[in-house]
Amino acid sequence: MTTTPTAPERGWRTIDILVTVLIGVAFGVAFMGYSLFYTAIGPVTALFRPAEGILTGIWCLPAILALLIVRKPGAALGAEMIAAILEALLGSHFGIGAVISGAAQGLGMEIGFAVFGYRRFGWAPAALGACLSVFFEWIYEIIAYFPEWDVFFKGMYLVFFLISGLVLTAGLGLLLTRLLASTGAINRFAPGREHAERTAV
Fold it and tell me: Which parts of the chain span the membrane according to its record (predicted)?
C-alpha cells in the first residue's frame, strides 16, 4: 500500500458501491460465527474479563478494508453498518448493540483517515483509524456492558482494545488488501493499480 499522498477520486462509481456492500455482507455473515466464538471462549476470558478486548479488532475489519480498497469518504461507515445490521437481522445475541457498535467502529475509522484528508492509505492512517475505531467501541461497551467495572479493569480493557486494533484491524487489514491486490481481484481500484506498478517489469 502506497504511503504517497494522492488526491482522492471524486464521486462513487457503481463498482465502489458494489464492493462496499459486498464487504459488508460478507462480514455480516462471518460475524455471526465470530459472535459464537465469543461465547465459546467465555470460560477462558472469565479469568480476566478485560482480556476479551483482544478480539475486538476483527469487528472493525469491514471498515478498514472498504476504505483501503474503495478509498472514498463514507466507505468505512457504509461497510461497517451493512455488516452490523445484517448480523443483527441474522439473530446475533448482541441484538441492536451490534448496530450501535457498527456505527461507532465505522465512524472512528472515517475520522482516522479524514485526518489525512483521505489522501494516505498506509500504516499511519490505518493505525489511527483502527485506534479510534476500537476506542469509540470501548466507550460504548464500558457504558452499555461494563459500567460496574473499576478504573483498572476499564483501563486494561482499553489496552487490549488498542493492541487488537493495531494488530487485527490495521495490520490484518493492510495485509488482506495487499493479498487481494496481488491476486488481481481489485485491479479496478487504486491498490490493484499500485500493485501492478510495483511489479511491472
Answer: 17-41, 53-70, 82-103, 123-146, 158-181
